[in-house]
């Protein structure tokens, strides 16, 4: 973080701030399984998902449940891959369509792409998140229902988008295989086993998460099932080991040398003290193309809250070098200072050509240019410089280091919540829109309900209804 506007004295003060906010106490409470998600009275025990006996994370109960579910998931995935668990017509599964949204989608989708070189060649995993008919249609297109497993991933099993897509997929299966037979092809990941059962997922195919696993902190839970199907249970276990490795560091390293703590303090300095209200995440690794979207939810849904002394900046990003040819103009010369997290792997599995060295050269050049700038008499050609960035280097992008990286940002997000004085584990801000959508849907179908809309919304509803009628 040496390219930040942070002198040793600044870091000292930031560490004092962390002390005042009692980050050590909060960390202890999190590890002990206390209900630190106060608005919902829940613990936040994602570290138990990858812990081993004796790690001292959470109570015995949560660890035992996590270990049991991990073992079930491994067996299931191995059985699918070995063809022991087959479709209803006796053919082995060759594809999985993972249906889920938000935290039940972004992590697994990001990781499947990141670990592409580790994927099982004979098994394809596709995702469907958005409730846009085109998405589920494309996800199912060209697939053989006889060899397709549909994974419905929803902690609540009530999320409207997910359930609409899940019903469409179940219907697609039933159309080809029959109503009852279709259910052999449905797996579920949820905290509500009853709802999964009512939907039709067999309990053998249902994997549990618990109220102490937040959606955006759930990649290392059974929500990782699509990832495990894509890369194999052993690689999924390696990702958990990497996350655990970062957990051990987070729990034991002194605050001044604690990566998640330092990363959080740097971000707090930039966002809250210097007023830089956006941060770019730019991985110089195409495998991490979906990391910015994953971190956007992790950080903005966790800490985009009004109650505290500060809140998350806007997080956005693209892989470098594409990002350079898209928005770096504004990073270098725009009036707003936008700090950057650059992320790259020191080694690449691609040994032909010098692409990887070029990628790294570009990353270092951008970070240097942002920091040093360049004076010029001509304003158009002048670079102000002194623009902050961090560089995070992995040895290589593999399951273990991806687990470390995910846990790094999970803990960073938690520490920021503590220092800002917000609860990173709830998300009340998504509720109002959900309620209004429920009220608007009948109106779009032409039903006049009790809901009163403002004139702007009512006008749009009228317009959409007339258009639909004309198109019929
Ligand atoms: O966007 C709100 C939210 O509750 C997220 O926090 C969560 O990750 C997502 O919806 C999906 O929720 P579920 O897993 O319950 O379908």
Determine the strand fraction and express it as a percent band: 5-15%
Residue stretches low in confidence (pLDDT < 50, at least 5 long) are none
Element-level helix/strand string: HHHEHEHEHHEHEHHHEHEHEHEHHH
Mean pLDDT: 96
Task: Tell me the structural class.
Answer: alpha/beta
Give the helix level as a range of percent: 40-55%
How is the largest sheet built, in terms of strand order?
2-1-3-4-5
- Count all strands and give the number: 9
Number of helices: 17
Shape: globular
Molecules bound to protein:
6-O-phosphono-beta-D-fructofuranose
Radius of gyration using CA atoms only: 24 Å
Main β sheet profile: 5 strands, parallel
Spatial separation of the terminal alpha carbons: 59 Å
Keywords summarizing the entry:
binds 6-O-phosphono-beta-D-fructofuranose; single chain; four-stranded parallel β-sheet; alpha/beta; five-stranded parallel β-sheet
Report what the structure shows.
With 472 residues, the chain is of the alpha/beta class. 47% of the residues lie in helices and 10% in strands. It is built from 17 helices and nine strands. The strands form two sheets. It has a five-stranded parallel β-sheet, with helices on both faces. A four-stranded parallel β-sheet has the order 7-6-8-9, with helices on both faces. The chain is globular, with a radius of gyration of 24 Å. Residues 101-104, 154-156, 159, 162, 215-216, 301, 427, 430 line the site of 6-O-phosphono-beta-D-fructofuranose.
Question: Summary?
Answer:
By secondary structure, the protein is α/β, with parallel strands linked by helices. The chain has 17 helices and nine strands. The strands form two sheets. The protein has a five-stranded parallel sheet with strand order 2-1-3-4-5, sandwiched between helices. A four-stranded parallel sheet has the order 7-6-8-9, with helices on both faces.
